[in-house]
Amino acid sequence: MTYQDKVRADVHPAALMYAEEEKSGRLSRREFLTRATALGLAAPMAYGLIGVPTPARAQEDKPMGGTLRMEMETRALKDPRVADWSQIANVYRGWLEYLVQYERDGSLTPMLLESWEANEDATQFTLNVRQGVTWNNGDPFTAEDVVYNITRWCDGTVEGNSMAGRMAALVDPDTNQLREGAIETVDDHTIVLNLSAPDIAIIVNTADYPAALVHPSYSGGDPSENPVGTGPYIPEEVEIGVRVTLVKNPDHQWWGTEVFGGPYLDRIEYIDYGTDPAAVVSAVESGEIDITYQSVGDFIEIFNALGWTESEVVTASTITVRFNQANAPYDNVDVRRALQMAVSNDIVLELGYNDRGVVAENHHVCPIHPEYADIGPAEYDPEAALELLTSAGHAETEFELISIDDAWQATSCDAVAAQLRDAGVNITRTVLPGSTFWNDWLTYPFSATEWNMRPLGVQIMNLAYKSGVAWNETAYSNPDFDAALAEAGSIADADARREVMARMEEMLRADGVVIQPYWRSLYRHYRAEVMGAEMHPTFEHHHYKWAIQA
Amino acid sequence: MLRFIAGRILTMLLTALCLTFVVFFLTNLGPNLEKVAKSEIGVRISDAEVESWLARNGYAQPVLVRYGEWLGVLPGWTGEAADGTPTGRCVAQDQSLEEADRFCGILQGDWGYSTVFRAPVSEIIARSLALTGKLMFWVMAVMVPGALLLGVLAGMREGSRLDRSLSTFAITTTATPEYVSGVVFIAVFASTAVGLRWFNGSATSAMEDITFVNFTLPVMTIALYGMGYIARMTRASMAEVMTAQYIRTARLKGVRFRDIVLRHALRNALIAPFTVIMLQFPWLLNGVVIVETLFNYKGFGWTLVQAAGNNDIELLLGVSVVSVFVVLVTQLISDIGYVYLNPRIRIS
Amino acid sequence: MDALTWTGSLGTVLNPLLWVSVALLLLAVAGQVLASLLPAPQMRPRPDGTLVATTGLRGLADTAGRFALLALLAVLLAYIVAGALMPYGSAGIVGAVARRFAPVWISLALVFALSIHFRRRLGLFGRLFDSTIGMIGFGLVLFWVFTALYFTAFGWIATHDPLSQLSGMKNVLPGEPVAMAPEGAWPHYLLGGDNLARDVFSRMVAGSAIVVLIAPLATLFAFMVGITLGLPAAYFGGRLDQILSFLANLVLAFPVILLFYLLVTPEIVQTGIPSFMAMVLFVFPILFLAVLLDSRYRTDRRKRWPILAVTLAVTGWLYLSLVSQPGTPVNFLHPDVDLFNIPGGILIVFVSVVFVNSPTVFRIGRGLALDLATRDYVAAAQTRGERPWYIMLWEMLPNARGPLIVDFCLRIGYTTILLGTLGFFGLGLPPESPDWGTTINDGRRFLSIYPHAAIVPALALLSLVLGLNLLADGLREESLKD
To answer: Which chains have at least 3 CB atom pairs separated by less than 8 Å from chain C?
Structure first.
């Protein structure tokens, strides 16, 4: 038995199928990695399956010690499961950790889990909890703690608990609590999850930012007040809106030091410069920070010009200029189609995001998603658009496009509005401050929303376009679409999945659901001395990887 | 004099009362309260839930009653949370009704709690006032001597070339609002594009440690705009004094010009600028807001913008109390100082 | 189409001249300042009994300064004239811009020529032309007034639509040719493109229209409110004065920026408070006009009622059209009767600015009236049995016009700055608005690399406010000579 065969013997059959698909070019490498590691394969093994050597994890020697100052909005901290901003999670990531971690290359790294396996139809997952982990108050970390946290996540009665939706296969829809029998504790370090329906995304979902594991003594509210966690840092200073400081916890032996090395930094400072990137430019020019949280639009070039190192990651992050179909005149599909047709996505990308991304096709499935089916570019025909609008009786109607006052989002909406105006549509723009904007973001008739990347295409469809789900801002409700979505959620080979997805994409486009101009790449810039802090597709900060040269 | 001051203080209190009520009223209008409710318990709640949340948290009472509670002249509201624990304006977590105070308003020193910064309002205001205090100190240290010098030099020989040049300069600075000069300063002195990079275009690091490099631009930006106005007032006052009889007499007597300016004219010429400088304080607040936003210096002006932008009611009220107080106190000082410095004015 | 240079072929001749004259001027000014610090020139008697003043350094600097200034003006004039006359493109950006402004130059020249010729018959306005400062200020203000006028009325001067975005023109430098120009479009972005590929030059011109329209109008309204309340407060005194003064001080004690934040947020607008404030504030101009005319024609029975009726009807209709806005709580007029609607934020901004300015005007008006009330002609009118309003409006107000006009000019400048502040904080005006405050705020984000998008409107705003200040200074100087 060769090594290769031995490997194959314990590998999930679906992962082998994915490997074949990847080799024959039907599955992107990135998608393969996400899918295969989600089924319980360690990343090196996943790479082995497709015959690619594991990319060398930064082997460079990272120096110990030092302080890293990063620009980031410091928002009020919340119970992790109701956290609604990556920035909030990035603070408590210092001392709270996750079961698994989503990496830059699309693979999953086991963190507080040592490994996991799925059964053949992805309805049962066995989780092996990592041994030898302790909380920083001295308690040992066991399967009990994992069960406690999953129970917390499944509590759908808590307002704003977005984890409940992600754990839908474990939730009892009647009580909105953890379903009886959904979790079995086998021993101190093993548990089994019994899903009500196949869900390949459940492990990926535990890498999402609200899924940090808290200690059973945690009672809700600001987690920094009593920072019990398994991670290597503790908060020192939390001044919301001003700065947050994390320092290496001297009294805690972090389990990861043996596994990954690190943590290297003594101190991490998050300094708040508000939402205006211009303030960050000033901070960079003044030498007040070492690294940006995110560089957007035109500022990417500015930071490059300042001689900072650029770190780019291609993602499925996007902006959707969407119609709420519950509001007139957007309940008329011709109006929506007409407005869609009047906008050239290329130009929005150029003017709104400086061509730093890929043109999208108005259906919110990204070429880097495994299920992506190419159904051609979005239609652009301003003259036909005006005709359609006129025949729908809305040639004179005044449309209002609402956006947040964030630099690149407002700019993109301005570009959309300008094109509509050129096409002869009567349009006005309204820009709302962030505090006001988010209060009603689901119900504006015509507005723009920023969507972060989800590793799988079906994840985003489930979050935003399924009838009646919490974040369905378009009020889109199409039974055919819902049926197709359910079909796409179970495991099938790539061609079959793509076929279903092609149908869904066509439906989204034919119904004129969103103008989705582009997929944006994410960027971050830092001083040459900073190490290991590359941009992450979902904005995660893996503090233990960070280092700085003196 | 005493009667005058007492009267002024009484008016001042009345003004402060009216203004805080206006702020209270505007921040407590229906849509604003709805925003508060939504930001506290989530954006996807129904109107009925908003209503019940507002009722449970004491927002359903008439505005005047709540204003009284905020002031501390009416007892704070009490109620019960959904799970039966007692709640109330003055009831802290895990506190029973008996333990809690009956009154907890601004008169009792309770400024409330900021929803944006998650900290007591008094703490935030103290912190930001300290930062702005530093900024104002340096602004005054640059602006007042600079403006007086400009004004005196220009006013001592009215109509001379020096006067023309300085006056034009003063007019130009008053015509350059902070957002223009700040932008130009950053572009010229701090940006990589021009390449001088003498100073910092961000004053965030000055919150901990003020240096020449990180504080010059914000100070200059505010000082320059205010300087022109004070300088022109000083010039006018100086020019008037220089034509006064006693100066003419001194000149005819052959006193040296320098001595005339320094010994005789200056003292009288500075009465008017003094009031102007005092009245300049409320104006400076405007500049402080712009400059602190532009340079990301988290002082009082920045706090005001944050509080107003996020409808942080109690913080906004605290901020307005302080700013109204500053305005009124400087007006009072200006009035008293004017009377004190100018013996010709008598108060009946 | 090639990119334009700043001065084109014109520059080879004029640029060196320009630098030389600027250097000379700076030297001369420095010399003058130094000379002023030295002791005054001594008069020395000559043996024949006449006096001679040593000119020395001071005289030299004076003469040099005058000539340097003249030379500089001549060079600048040459840029404009040559630029406007030479074929398009050969005189560079300066030439092309000068040419676009041709209608403004012609109007300016006409106004100045006429005014200087007839200045002896024009009262205070005519005397303005005796003061260099005042003339420069008047020129600057008039420049922007004509620009705004021609842009609004005929669409002249601007080269592109201020809102349209052309692909490929994002952040381009001044003088860049328009890529893939549509048929008939102007071939260049004269002062570059902004972050959204809009023409900076056209936006500046369009912005002037907003500023030049709103600022004086808002100031005028503030004056009407302030004076309608200030004069009676001073004249009648007593309880009325106390209450009004208290209210004025109340508004004055309010930090302006806080007031704006409270008034202009979407939530407050939703409640309709700004609309109700508009209803109250805009009554005052009507009141002012009505009282003004009524007190005049009170004794003339035949004219009194017709005049009053016509005035009230016209202004009343205007008032109702202005106040009633669809989409706000105050919306009662049928669209057919509603003459005009002011776009969204502008009305709110307008109201806020009027509200903030009125108390200051009130204080000034009251102060002036207190002073004038002691004059003999007021006493004379009182003994004549004139009604109080007649005395206030037809006896006192005309005599207070000097200081009021000066303050009016200053206040327009202040209002312009205030509007810019609002734009800077993104309050009120629509986000795409080309007004200068908003464009400065948009442009400042990219200051490090593309300074033109912020600097152009900043200089425009600076020049207008400077012009107003200089004009006020000139007017004050001349009116003091009375």
So the answer is: A, B
Q: Are A437 and A493 contained in the same domain?
A: yes
Per the structure block, which two tokens stand in for A523?
A: 């960027």
Residues in chain A: 550
Helix (H) or strand (E) segment spanning residue A100:
strand A100-102
Which residues span the domain enclosing C328? Answer: 205-438
State the CATH number of the domain containing residue A138: 3.90.76.10
Cβ atoms within 10 Å of B169's Cβ, excluding its own? 14
The structural domain count of chain A equals: 3
pLDDT range class, residue B131, cuts 50, 70, 90: very high
Helix (H) or strand (E) holding C412: helix C401-424
pLDDT reading at A8 higher than 50: no
C191, part of any domain? no
> Can you give the pLDDT at residue B130?
92
pLDDT mean over B12-19: 86
Structural domain of A26: 3-49
Q: pTM score, two decimals?
A: 0.81
**Whole-number Å distance between alpha carbons of C475 and C471:** 6
Chain B residues touching residue C257 (CB < 8 angstroms): 285-286, 289, 301, 304
Nearest-CB residue to B296 (from A274, A435, A442): A274
Question: Residues of A numbered 225-254 whose beta carbons fall under 8 angstroms of chain B's beta carbons: which are they?
Answer: 239-242
Same domain, A324 and A179: no
Identify the pLDDT of residue C350. 85
In a domain, C304, yes or no: yes
pLDDT at A234: 93
Cβ contacts of residue B105 below 8 Å, gap of 6+? B68, B69, B70, B71, B72, B73, B74, B76
Domain assignments of chain B as residue spans, ordered by start: 33-119, 122-341
Structure tokens at B249: 């007499």
Mutate to test the interface with C, among B171, B192, B293 (most CBs of C within 10 A): B171
Same domain, A201 and A319: no
C133 interfacial to chain B (CB closer than 8 Å): yes
Task: Indicate if A373 and A442 belong to the same structural domain.
Answer: yes
Q: Across the interface, which of A239, A241, A283 has its CB nearest the CB of B202?
A: A283
Task: Please check whether residue B246 touches C, CB under 8 A.
Answer: no
For A190-242, the pLDDT digits (tens) are 999 998 887 777 888 888 888 999 999 988 788 888 899 999 999 998 988 88
Query: Which among C55, B125, B116 is positioned nearest to A77, based on CA atoms?
Result: B116
* B75-89, C31-45, C132-146: least confident range: C31-45
CB–CB of A288 and B310 under 8 A? no
Same domain, A101 and A45: no
- In CATH terms, the superfamily for domain B122-341 is MetI-like (1.10.3720.10)
If 0-12 CB within 10 Å is exposed, 13-18 middle and 19+ buried, where does residue B229 land? buried
**Total domains present in chain C:** 2
Identity of residue A299: F
Do C392 and C270 fall into the same domain? yes
Cβ contact, residue pair C445, A277, below 8 Å: yes
- B205 vs A288, A436, A438: nearest CB: A288
Mean pLDDT of A95-119: 87
Query: Tell me: the pLDDT tens digits for A38-73?
Result: 666 655 555 545 555 555 555 567 888 899 999 999
Q: What is the pLDDT of residues A422-447, one digit of tens each?
A: 888 888 888 877 667 777 788 889 99
Same domain for A471 and A326: yes
CA distance B291 to chain C (A): 11
Instruction: Classify strands A233-239 and A113-118 as parallel, antiparallel or unpaired.
Output: unpaired
Are A351 and C167 inside 8 Å of each other by CB? yes
Q: Does residue C430 fall inside a structural domain?
A: yes
Q: β-strands A530-531, A547-548: how paired?
A: antiparallel
- Flag whether A216 is in a domain: no
Over range A257-264, report the average pLDDT: 85
Tell me which of B158, B166, B180, B335 to substitute to probe the interface with C (most C C-beta atoms closer than 10 Å).
B180
Chain A nearest CA to B191, separation (Å): 7
What does the pLDDT look like over B284-307, one tens digit per residue?
Answer: 777 888 899 888 888 998 898 888
> Does A367 share its domain with A515?
yes
* C181 pLDDT more than 70: no
ipTM score = 0.83
Residues 6 or more apart whose Cβ sits within 8 Å of residue A386: A338, A342, A395, A423, A424, A425
